[in-house]
C-alpha cells in the first residue's frame, strides 16, 4: 500500500511516507529512486541488509533513541490498528511507554521485550483509547515476567474522581477476583501498581528525572480539564508526545526544538461522515474542535519545524490516507510520518531513520531479566488479604468446591509431579500430600 523511500542528502536521511495513490513525487524522490535502480551489491547466495526492523536483532547505540508505534488508532477498535501507544527506548537502557490504549498490549508482546524493562507508563489522558490496555499490561505483563510493580505517571483532574490515581485504584479493584485467584499460586511481585499523579495544570513541570532522562508535562485541551502532553529529553535529543489535544499555546511553546513530535491528526471530516457514520454536525465538532484536524496538525508542525513530525490517531486505510496527507500538506511541507502500528524511528543527532518493524505474532513470554521466585503461598495470601480486605479463607477453594474435584484424574496428575521430580532431580510434593 505504501513504501518508505529514504532520501539521503546532506548527511540526513528522511523517511517519507509516500502514498501510492498518485500524490506527485518531489523531484528529489524521483532522483533517489533512479539512483537506487543502479546495480548494487547483489549476490544469489549472500544475505543483504533489509530496510525493515526486526526486533531484538539490532543494538541500540549509546547515543540513540528508538521510538516504536505500538498503537496509532482510535477508540473504535479494529484488528488492523491498536489505539494510542508509543514506546521510547534509549541507548542508556531506559524504556518508557507513552499511553497504553486498547489493543496495545498485543503489539507490545510482539516486540518480545522483557517486561521488567517495561515498568514505566506515562498516560496523557484517561480516554479508553489511551489507557484501555493498562489492565492487560498490568496482569499479563506480570505473568510474562515483570517482577516489580508497574509504575504509572498521569495527570490529576479538576476533581479527585477525574484523576489518574482514582482510575488506577478503581481498575485495580475491578481486578480483585483476578488477583485473588492468582495470589499464592504465582510469583506475585509484579502484581502491584504505583501511581504518580501530578497536577494537570503544571506548565512544563518536571515529573520524572533519573539517569539523565527528564520528562515534563504541560496541559492539553481535549474533552475536559485533565489531559496533558509530555516531552522527554535525554542526551541532547527531545521527544514530544501530544496524547490528544486541540492545538494549544503550551504545545507551541514546550514542543519547540524537538527532534520528533508526535501529535494527534484526526480522520478528515468527510471520512468521519462516510466511514465513521457521524452526522456532519458531530463530524465537524469532533473532527475539528475536540481533536486536531489534519490541516491544523500541519499548521502546528509548520510552526514547530521538528526534525520529524508524526501524525497519528486516524485509521490509515488505502482510501483514507490520501485525504489526511493532502490536507496536512496544505499547511506543512516538512518531514512527515503518517504513523501506523509498528512504525519505527531510530533517532540520533545526525539521522532519523524511519522503517516498519516486522514482528512475530505467535509469541510467548520474552526472556526474564532475573530469576522468577516460586509461588508465595499463604504468606502472599495473608499480605494480600490485609491490603484488600478480602478474607484469607476466600483466597482458596471452599470445601464445597474442593469436595467436587473428580478423583479419577488424581492418579494421572500425580504422574506429572513424579515426572517433574524425576527429570529435575528434586521432589515436588503433590498438593494434597503437603
Ligand atoms: Zn481522547
Ligand atoms: Zn484518542
Radius of gyration: 25 Å
Number of strands: 17
Helix content: 25-40%
Classify the oligomer: single chain
The proportion of strand residues reads 15-25%
Short description:
The protein is α/β, with parallel strands linked by helices and 434 residues long.
Which descriptors would you attach to this protein?
globular; alpha/beta; 14 helices; 22% strand; binds zinc ion; seven-stranded mixed beta sheet; 434 residues; eight-stranded mixed beta sheet
Describe the model.
The protein has 434 residues and is an alpha/beta fold. The chain has helices at 27-36, 104-111, 128-131, 134-143, 164-174, 176-182, 249-254, 269-274, 280-290, 294-304, 321-328, 377-388, 399-402, 410-424; strands spanning 2-9, 12-19, 65-71, 85-90, 95-98, 120-122, 150-155, 193-198, 205-210, 213-219, 228-234, 237-241, 260-264, 308-312, 336-338, 343-347, 352-356. The chain has an eight-stranded mixed beta sheet. Helix 7 links the parallel strand 12 and strand 13 (260-264). It is globular and about 75 Å long. 40% of the residues are buried. Residues 1-24 have low confidence and may be disordered. The structure holds zinc ion (2 copies).
Furnish the topology, listing elements before pairings:
Blueprint: E1 2-9, E2 12-19, H1 27-36, E3 65-71, E4 85-90, E5 95-98, H2 104-111, E6 120-122, H3 128-131, H4 134-143, E7 150-155, H5 164-174, H6 176-182, E8 193-198, E9 205-210, E10 213-219, E11 228-234, E12 237-241, H7 249-254, E13 260-264, H8 269-274, H9 280-290, H10 294-304, E14 308-312, H11 321-328, E15 336-338, E16 343-347, E17 352-356, H12 377-388, H13 399-402, H14 410-424
Parallel strand pairs: 5-6, 6-7, 7-8, 12-13, 13-14, 14-15
Antiparallel strand pairs: 1-2, 3-4, 3-16, 4-5, 9-10, 10-11, 11-12, 16-17
Helix pairs in contact: 10-11
The structure holds zinc ion (2 copies).
Amino acid at each position: 500500500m505504501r513504501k518508505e523511500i529514504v532520501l539521503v542528502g546532506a548527511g540526513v536521511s528522511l523517511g517519507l511516507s509516500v502514498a501510492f495513490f498518485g500524490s506527485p513525487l518531489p523531484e528529489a524522490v524521483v532522483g533517489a529512486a533512479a539512483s537506487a535502480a543502479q546495480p548494487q551489491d547483489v549476490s544469489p547466495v549472500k544475505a543483504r541488509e533489509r530496510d525493515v526492523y526486526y526486533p531484538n536483532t539490532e543494538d541500540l547505540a549509546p547515543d540513540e533513541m528508538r521510538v516504536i508505534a505500538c498503537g496509532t488508532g482510535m477508540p473504535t477498535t479494529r484488528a488492523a490498528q491498536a489505539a494510542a501507544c508509543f514506546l521510547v527506548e534509549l541507548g542508556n537502557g531506559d524504556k518508557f511507554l507513552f499511553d497504553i490504549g486498547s489493543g496495545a498490549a498485543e503489539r507490545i508482546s510482539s516486540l518480545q521485550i522483557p517486561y521488567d524493562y517495561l515498568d514505566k507508563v506515562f498516560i496523557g489522558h484517561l480516554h479508553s483509547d489511551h489507557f484501555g490496555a493498562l489492565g492487560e499490561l498490568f496482569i499479563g505483563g506480570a505473568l510474562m515476567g515483570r517482577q516489580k510493580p508497574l509504575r504509572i505517571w498521569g495527570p490529576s483532574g479538576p476533581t479527585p474522581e477525574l484523576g489518574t490515581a482514582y482510575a488506577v485504584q478503581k481498575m485495580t479493584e475491578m481486578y480483585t477476583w483476578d488477583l485473588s485467584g492468582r495470589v499464592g499460586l504465582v510469583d506475585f511481585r509484579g502484581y502491584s501498581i504505583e501511581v504518580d499523579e501530578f497536577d494537570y495544570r503544571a506548565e512544563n513541570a518536571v515529573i520524572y528525572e533519573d539517569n539523565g532522562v527528564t520528562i515534563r508535562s504541560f496541559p492539553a485541551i481535549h474533552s475536559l480539564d485533565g489531559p496533558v502532553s509530555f516531552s522527554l529529553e535525554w542526551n541532547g535529543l527531545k521527544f514530544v508526545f501530544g496524547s490528544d489535544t486541540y492545538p494549544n499555546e503550551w504545545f507551541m511553546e514546550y514542543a519547540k526544538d524537538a527532534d520528533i513530535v508526535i501529535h494527534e491528526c484526526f480522520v478528515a471530516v468527510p471520512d468521519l461522515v462516510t466511514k465513521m457514520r457521524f452526522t456532519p454536525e458531530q463530524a465537524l465538532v469532533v473532527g475539528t474542535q475536540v481533536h486536531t484536524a489534519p490541516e491544523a496538525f500541519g499548521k502546528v508542525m509548520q510552526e514547530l519545524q521538528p526534525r520529524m513530525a508524526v501524525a497519528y490517531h486516524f485509521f490509515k486505510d488505502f482510501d483514507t490516507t490520501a485525504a489526511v496527507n493532502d490536507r496536512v500538506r496544505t499547511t506543512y511541507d516538512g518531514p512527515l510520518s503518517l504513523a501506523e502500528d509498528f512504525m519505527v524511528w531510530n533517532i540520533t543527532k545526525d539521522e532519523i531513520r524511519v522503517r516498519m518493524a516486522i514482528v512475530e505474532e505467535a509469541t510467548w513470554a520474552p526472556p526474564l531479566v532475573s530469576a522468577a521466585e516460586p509461588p508465595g503461598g499463604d504468606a502472599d495470601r495473608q499480605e494480600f488479604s490485609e491490603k484488600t480486605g478480602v478474607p484469607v479463607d476466600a483466597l482458596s477453594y471452599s470445601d464445597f468446591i474442593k469436595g467436587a474435584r473428580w478423583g479419577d484424574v488424581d492418579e494421572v496428575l500425580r504422574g506429572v509431579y513424579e515426572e517433574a521430580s524425576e527429570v529435575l532431580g528434586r521432589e515436588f510434593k503433590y498438593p494434597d500430600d503437603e
